[in-house]
UniProtKB/TrEMBL annotation:
The keyword Transmembrane helix applies. The lineage of its organism: Bacteria, Pseudomonadati, Pseudomonadota, Alphaproteobacteria, Hyphomicrobiales. The chain crosses the membrane at residues 38-55, 75-100, 112-134, 140-161, 168-189. Keywords: Membrane, Transmembrane, Transmembrane helix. It comes from the Bacteria. This is Yip1 domain-containing protein. It comes from Allorhizobium borbori.
Amino acid sequence: MPGIDEVRFYLRGLVLLARHDPQGFRFLDLTDRGMMRSFWAIVWCLPAMIISWLWRRMLFMDGMPDGFRLGWIFYFRLGLVEAASWIFPLVIVGLMLFALGASRFLPAVVTINNWLAVPFSYAYTALLILLVFVPGAVGLVSLLQLVLVLMLVTMLFRILYIICEKQNLMAGTLTMLLLVPSLLLADWLQRFLGIYPL
């Protein structure tokens, strides 16, 4: 598992690439091996995910009658939602790149997507914690969430633009495919599995 120094190394590379600085490539392993190692990002995101799950449990329980209990199956289903939301967009992107004859971009796209998830997972979790301790800050948190989404979209597009050899259309399409299906699938799965807050 990559240590904290290695993760910082990768994140520095992402920031440099987002600034269109090609020096960022020196900090990232965009090979097939690097792509497989990038899935350790899921483990790095686990603490943030767990806090998010506890928050979702609190929201879910608010709509339930007194005395209602939730077992471990609730967290298992949330884990399924997280896993599907993470993997499904990568599968779609992989199929699209293979269909276009651009499979050479896949290791870099997957690696970038996985490591970029780490800082944004913790930033989003920080907003949830703020919301728990300052319930009156709903408006501020909503605004900050929008800022986070815009930052993620911007960074992802700018990095993919370089990865895809400055092809605007491909970079835009990949950005959309990495973000939109994940949101739609998470919403649908939560409703299907009965864990959507009422």
